[in-house]
Amino acid sequence: MKTLIKLFAGLFILFLAQVTLGQNISGSAHDFSSETWNPSGEICIVCHTPHHADISVTDAPLWNHQLSTATYTVYSSSTLDATVGQPDGISKLCLSCHDGTVALDNFGGKTNGTTFISGDELLGTDLSDDHPISFVYDATLASTDGGLYDPTTTNSGLGGTIDADMLFGTKLECASCHDVHNGSGVAKLLVKSNAASALCLTCHNK
Amino acid sequence: MIMIRIKLILLFLIPAWLFSQSIVNTVHNLSVSGPGQIKAVSETEICIFCHTPHNSAPKGPLWNREDPGLNYSLYNSTTTQAVIGQPDGSSILCLSCHDGTIALGSVLSRPVPIDFSGGITVMPAGNTNLTTDLTDDHPVSFVYNSALAAADGELVDPVNISWPIVLENDKLQCTACHDPHKNIYTDFLVITTQYSNLCTQCHDKNYWISSSHRNSTATWNGSGNDPWFHTPYTTVAENGCENCHNPHNAGLNERLLNYQAEENNCLYCHNGNVASTDIQLQLTKAYIHDVYAYNLIHDASEGALVLTKHVECEDCHNPHAVNNTSANAPYVRGFNKGVKGINLSGGDVDPVQYEYEICFRCHADSPDKPASPTSRQIEQNNVRLEFDVGNPSFHPIAGPGTNPDVPSLIPPLTESSLIYCTDCHASDGTGSPAGPHGSIYPQILKFNYTTADYTPESYSAYELCYQCHDRNEIIGGGNNFQEKVHKKHITEEDAPCNACHDPHGISSTQGNTTNNTHLINFDIGIVHPNNMGQLYFEDLGSYKGRCTLKCHGKNHRRKSY
After folding, report:
1. Cβ-Cβ contacts under 8 Å, B56 against chain A
2. DSSP string for residues in B463-518
3. Is A11 exposed, middle or buried (0-12, 13-18, 19+ CB in 10 A)?
4. How confident is the model over B516-557, as pLDDT tens digits?
5. 3-class DSSP state for residue B363?
6. Is residue B165 less than 8 Å (CB to CB) from chain A?
7. Would you say B290 and B436 are in contact if contact means Cβ atoms under 8 Å apart?
8. Of B8-17, B18-27, B228-237, B350-359, where does mean pLDDT reach its minimum?
9. Residue in chain B lying closest to A119 (CA)
10. Separation in Å, CA A149 to CA A30, A166, A196, A200, B108
């Protein structure tokens, strides 16, 4: 029941976002309704289903796409203070298409799809050339690093703090920067404009 | 409570970069909003010129530029122990702009290069374009570990180096000194170079703590060349290392000195414009230690014994050690502290204990050492042998002289006194700086010393000798010895002191205590063998001796006094 309330609350927020910002997934890069590999012509179905959802990922929102079982090479750097583990949480949902190991059309129980992601959107299983994800970003990390803002007190530019608006249980995930539903209408499905590097400089105190 | 909330809200409204220095207001903000001259025409993103969140290369730190490759000429020096490889790590990232080979706007995440104003593509020529020739830049991309520190001997063990100096996987990279995101101390330095603060985090030069070059508050008087052209500092102490060294675009690559002509690194301050003494003026005189005549021969790694003839300031001075502490002969003074030399036995010493050990570097066992201007009965140009304390006679440089009865000595000098080489060999003129820099007199003598035959005696003719030896005692006459020897020859025959005396000494390997006491070693241009072909002096005890020779046409045959 609680999950259902959460879902409705979420949908309501999405609805509000549509109304207030005038942007939605329809027509965005994530609108696959006219792709040949999606004969249903539905938009949401590639990722979501109202029934029989995959609940193997915690808090997965009625997941309908086959998940990847890949093991990833994660980002590392001599100046990195965060502990970067294997992608978890909702980032795994993104990677179920973007790591290129699972066909785009492997949704709704299908496992023999043949269309795979390509181009810049293909991150692969080597995530060492990508911004790290699935790491705890808290006041301690900010203090240790010295080049990050304290997420619990710093404004995200989205209404509240970084912690409240952009992190998922204190972790930074793909969705910290990307709004898969194109709520803000910014290119590359960013949560907000990166003009003047505003998105980067939300967290990075450089 | 409400006030606190309002304050919190206000805090959110203030742009975060106001709290601390940010890349946004540095010249590394290459976006259209950047404060520098070099910036994009319309691109607003700041991070993009270096970083991308996806598909970066090299991977860390999410790099967005091409790798310029391995095409660099590397710093090298005879005194570096580090193994300096082609730039890697973060240094190669810096060089992807700062070597001037890749367009500033060429980033991986954009299909076409970002346009720069003024039609700029690559880094314009100037100090920030290091080029692919890194031989004149502080080395980077070398392992800096405890072993290197131990091998070098003048580096801080990196286990004792702390933030903000950061090594990258044990290697020193550009980022050890520069933080490309923050420009608090100019040139994006991580801490100030004032008082050599940055340099001394790693460099621990012997003697530096007490060096005048670290501690002097002297300022530039504004004349001549700006000695501190690459710093904003106004005293010797503030400039510290950078008085002489330039970490980038150095004039003399090895050891990163300001100027290629070694002496200019010294003389642009020691010309009366910063230092109180004007050494450059001394070097305009006729007889000098000619530091101008040699270029790139001196090497800091050379042995104490100079094998290839040259002279540079650093042969006698250690700029990391010099100060103005005084000492008494024969001990080395602060000016020459920390220099290597050759001791009286011919062995290497580092540092020297006695001043003469510095002179012995060139004037003793060196194969190409200068020769004496006087042709003598006993030839010896090795001053180490001339001053040996086992000699039949010698001026007291390394130990008290052999003659216990020298009545001409002017107090406070006594028969047990020691003197410096530089008491005789030094710049002429009252108030001139100490040391044998330059003189109007041959052999860089501090006072006139006439060696020509038939010189009418005067104070000025033998001014050098008379500094220590009382003129009246020498030529005033009185007893038999004075009348027959000095008064007779110097004032009546107009013979110079140098005709009979060899002022350095006579080596025991050639002379003996019968014929060569009292520095007797004849100038054979003046004193000749007699008609029997004989030329010698014999010591017959106190104030007694006899000569067998021919001088001024007169034969002496065992002529005694």
Report:
1. 129-130
2. TTGGGTB-HHHHHS--SHHIIIIIIIIIIIS---HHHHB-SSEE-TTT--TTTSGG
3. exposed
4. 999 999 999 999 999 999 999 999 999 999 999 999 999 999
5. helix
6. no
7. no
8. B8-17
9. B55
10. 31, 13, 17, 11, 27
